Amino acid sequence: MTDPQDRVRSEIDENQPQLARFLLLRSLWRGAIDGWADPEALEQVAAARRLLDAGADRRDLELLARAVAYEAVFVTVDELDCGTDVNVSGVDVGWAVVESGEDGTPTGRRLSGLHEDLLTMDPSGRDGADLWR
Predict the structure, then answer these.
(1) In whole angstroms, what is the distance from residue 43 CA to residue 7 CA?
(2) 79 backbone dihedrals φ, ψ, rounded to 5°
(3) How many CB atoms are located within 10 Å of the residue 54 CB?
(4) For residues 93 and 100, what is the distance between their CA atoms, to the nearest angstrom?
(5) 12 vs 4: CA distance, rounded Å
(6) Cα 5 to Cα 10, 56, 72, 109, distances in angstroms
(7) 113 partner at 20 to 30 Å CA-CA among 27, 51, 78, 131?
(8) Cα 69 from Cα 60, distance rounded (Å)
């Protein structure tokens, strides 16, 4: 398995915003997806607290929360990648995710195909395999 950091380093010379892609996707894994593995995360959700109190397995609930979070992040970055609402015709506006410099000024380089690399940014190196076992 190739280390995502090594792949990013090798692609930076292609004038693509690989570092920005890497940082964004890795941040989404750590916050939105793996944040559910934090010891107190489930206790912040009333339904999860009730399930824990009823004897549900904490690990199973964490996996469920992480899998649902992964799906939500995937759908979100896929929509961002589309750049427009494909279900609406006649709309002449859209969106783009672009890299910015240290001062926040856009570089003009688009971060595209984010959904394609989301699984490879799993900090555990398992490419999300644990989410569906």
Answers:
(1) 37
(2) -65, -40
(3) 7
(4) 21
(5) 12
(6) 9, 37, 24, 20
(7) 131
(8) 14
Give the C-alpha distances (Å, rounded to integers) separating 32 from 13, 64, 77, 117: 30, 13, 13, 16
Task: Look up tokens 């996996």; give the residue.
Answer: 63
Answer yes or no: are the C-beta atoms of 80 and 21 closer than 8 Å. no
Written as six digits, the tokens of 52 are: 């824990």
33-103-74 Cα angle (round to 5): 20
Phi, psi of 45 (to 5 degrees): -115, 120
Question: pLDDT tens digits, residue range 68-124?
Answer: 999 999 999 999 999 998 888 888 889 999 999 999 999 999 999 999 999 999 999
Q: Name the residue among 14, 109, 21, 127 with its Cα closest to residue 70.
A: 127
Half-sphere exposure of 67 (CA within 13 A, CB side): 11
Does 17 score more than 90 pLDDT?
Answer: no
Q: How far apart are CA 75 and CA 71, in angstroms?
A: 6
Query: Would you state the structure tokens that stand for residue 121, as one six-digit string?
Result: 């940014």
